[in-house]
Amino acid sequence: MTLANKRILLGVTGSIAAYKSAELARRLREAGAEVQVVMTRGGAEFITPLTLQALSGRPVFLHHLDAETEAAMGHISLARWADLVLIAPASADFLARLAQGRADDLLATLCLACDGPLAVAPAMNRQMWAQASTQDNMRLLRERGVHVFGPGSGDQACGENGPGRMLEPREIAEQSAALFDSGLLQGRRVLISAGPTREDIDAVRYISNRSSGKMGFAIAQAAVEAGARVTLVAGPVALQAPERVRRIDVRSAAEMREAVLGRMEGQDIFIAAAAVADYRVARPAAGKVKKQARLILELERNPDILRAVTALPVPPFTVGFAAETENVAAYARAKLRDKALDMIVANEVGRHDRGFDSDDNELLVLWKGGEKSLPLGPKGRLARELITLIAERYGAKDTA
Ligand code: PMT
To answer: Do residues 359 and 340 lie in contact, with contact meaning Cβ atoms separated by under 8 Å?
Structure first.
């Protein structure tokens, strides 16, 4: 089980099972997730925010919708931050408020503002669980796509026995991890390029760009979760490769080209998220160039890796990226056509809140005969949405 690089917003509501949230926070973190706890007023009656702060490693947000909380991280930002909103324990009262779409405290409000996955682990007395009103609420929530973990059955804190117990933290953590395993690319071989390239000027200087590799690494993670066998060709970045990914480190565009083309045989899909330098220095110096009044560098074009891939006798399903500062859709559509791609992912660059070296991005995905906008959000979530789209289009091409 892994929750590597996942951001989980753990909502704790008023139930005796709230004491188990402490172990849940610990298990989620052990599995690799970042955990942000938000408590309702009732939740804070059962377990102290300090305990959850210690185990989650982050300050806990409480029930208020006030200026202080909003200044730290507003409810909209919190909802956007999370890859998964997990309410455990979810009391009968909170489930009723969720079903009604109430926004009367911070946790309920951010659930309303959340457009990603939402899961609840109900915890209540068996009679409260069996009640028609609770069951109606659960039906409504399931119909709306809320994931329901449990409840389990057994001895209850009130001395009764029956269904309504919150699942054990281990089971909740496992079911949370399973939500990210889509299996959409089961057994497919996917090669991804990520990060910048460095083009040497001399022994100590180089030309490069601001790519951090975050977008490409997030795509590699999403592809693994979709069941693919992933090779990641990475330029120089300060990131850890996701588990189960074969990573090949390269430095220059020439090295990236060799690494990509040399491993292309048998690949089903190629995703080119790397920001490959378009130019390299024509004659890099072997030593360190001495300071001089003016230094003129002659640059020559680097070969285009994407074009080389789509020109192969049997090219894989090929997805290019387009980094543009203006006319994003038009320039991207031209690249889709000119480079004979199956799909292109356009993003606006040159803005501080998206694109290069940011945790967030906004994507416009184009293919022959279709397009889809993926609104501004964390790169992890966008990567999963992108992999879903790629799997759909790849499947459509495969059966055409
Ligand atoms: O790494 P991050 O900080 O997370 O930032 C992500 C990103 C902005 C780098 C990423 O989302 C992105 O846009 N990557 C492509 C950047 C780019 O080089 O775009 P381009 O429009 O210049 O190139 C078009 C496509 O051709 C790209 O798929 C690129 O990999 C490919 N290319 C470019 C030049 C070259 N010599 N060979 C290529 O294959």
So the answer is: no
Ligand 1 closest atom vs CA 194: 1
- Which candidate, 174, 111, 99, places its Cα nearest to that of 135? 99
Integer Cα distance of 365 and 376 in angstroms: 13
Q: What is the pLDDT of residues 206-258, one digit of tens each?
A: 999 999 999 999 999 999 999 999 999 999 999 999 989 999 999 999 999 99
Whether the CB-CB separation of 88 and 168 falls below 8 Å is answered with: no
Pairing of strands 343-348, 360-367: antiparallel
Instruction: Give the pLDDT confidence of 87-114 residue by residue, as tens digits.
Output: 999 999 999 999 999 999 999 999 999 9
* Distance from Cα 347 to the centre of ligand 1, integer Å: 10
Substitution candidate for ligand 1 out of 279, 299, 306 with most atoms within 8 A of CB: 306
The residue whose CB lies within 8 Å of the most ligand 1 atoms, and thus the one to mutate among 193, 211, 351, is: 211
Annotated active-site positions, please? 158
Closest to 271 measured CA to CA, from 126, 105, 382: 382
User: What 3-state DSSP class applies to 36?
Assistant: strand
What structural domains and CATH numbers belong to the chain?
7-178 (3.40.50.1950), 189-398 (3.40.50.10300)
Pocket of ligand 1 (CB under 6 A): 193, 195, 211-215, 253, 272-276, 278, 302, 304-306, 320-323, 335, 347, 349, 355-357
Distance CA(18)–CA(15), nearest Å, equals 6
> From ligand 1's centre to the CA of 186, what distance in Å?
26
Mean pLDDT, the chain, integer: 94
Spatial separation of the C-alpha atoms in residues 210 and 77, rounded to whole Å? 25
pTM score, whole prediction: 0.86
The average pLDDT across 79-84 equals 91
